[in-house]
Each structure stands twice: as structure tokens, then as C-alpha cells.
Amino acid sequence: MKSRNLAVPERVLAIGAHPDDIELNAGATLAKWGAAGCEVSLLVCTDGSKGTWDPDAEPGELVAVRRNEQRESARRLGATGSVVFLDWIDGELESGPAPRRQLVSWIRKLRPVVVLGHDPWRRWRLHPDHRHAGWLTVDAIVAARDTHFFPDLGLAPHRPDALLLFEADEPDHAEYTGGFETIKATALEAFVSQYETTLSLPPDPDDTDRARLHNRVAGDLMDAGRTAGLASAELFKLIDNL
After folding, report:
1. Where do the structural domains in the chain lie, given as residue ranges?
2. What is the mean pLDDT of the chain?
3. Is pLDDT above 90 for 1?
């Protein structure tokens, strides 16, 4: 790894394609920073309306459920900042001017020191929302820093100090997450609608099922940490020349 453990930022903004993407990829890091006094904000690009295998599910009802789950998960992480939903239709997100304008607005409002998001350069990525959320994050950082992009927003430009890309093929930065494994797993448990699709849990998990999830989360963090010489870690591609 090129680097380990950024200084705890004053404010951070994590950007995910869907509810639960942020927690899956950076939940322990955000919990660590939140516990140290960082203002953690989360932004979700889509409405999550297709996040089920149930053909009889009503999309509007699922949107409301996933919003509430995301807010509860943020609470469990200790995120004291904003929880923002851009509400683009699940599976139809595009990295064009309209969503970029929205994201620029939030970057300028929240003024994060560090931004986290999907790595858009990941090879052979299938899900279009993850690709587009990654490009939106990168493109919005460029636009947010320069005064001539979206001047009609009436917001001062803002340039973050660092961008951490998760799901990267070639991570070069590790954040030590020891002691925050349980918080990450507990935050993921808030996404009840995703038990079957994402978390491999039965609809009504018992203590054994939940322990299995916690052990899996801790094991994944341990495996990631091993590549960085740490007991537990989440890995990112660090871009610090913004």
C-alpha cells in the first residue's frame, strides 16, 4: 500500500449508487471517523426501487423502505451529517449534466474535506449505476472546485483535499478498521429489504444467522487488512491531487 490512515477529516461525504453501497464498501472507515468527531454525510444517487427479487413488490413502497433503512444505517454508523437522496430511478442513472449539477450543489453545500465513491475505472463492472455513480463523483469534484461550472447555484466553489475510491481494482490506500467491525455489520443489518439479495440472510434471521454475518464482515476486513499489513482494513484508491 502506498499510504495508510488519513488524518481524521473534519467533514466527509460518501457517495453511493444505492442504499447499502456505502456501508458495504466504507462502513467501518466512516464509523471510525464519526467516532473521532468527523461530520459524516451520505449521498445516495438512486431510489433503490429495483432492489428486490420479489416480482410482486411495489416499487414506490420499496423506495420508502430503503430510504428509512438508509437513515437508520447512517444513525448506527454514527453519521451526524446529512443523508441525501438524489432519487434517480434505480438502474437508469446516467452521468450527465443534470445529476452532476445536483452533486456539485451538495459538495458545495457540505464542503467535505474527503469524498468517497465508487471507482468508475473498475474493469468489467456490470452494474451501470455503479459506473455512473463513480463518474458523477469524479466529474462533480472537478466542477465543484471551479467557479464557472454551475454559477447559477449561487454557491461558493469547493475543492476537497482527497478522494477515496472504493471497489478499486488497484487499491493503494488502507484505512485501519480494528474495533469497528461490529458497527459495520450492525449498520448493514439495518437494510432488512436486502437480507436475501445482498446480505445472504433469511427474511427472519436468528442469532446464529446474525453471528454469521458479523463473522463474515470481520473476516472480509481481516482479509483486506492482510494485504496492507494491518489486522483489519478497508481499501481504496487514493487521489489527493484534486
Report:
1. 3-239
2. 96
3. no
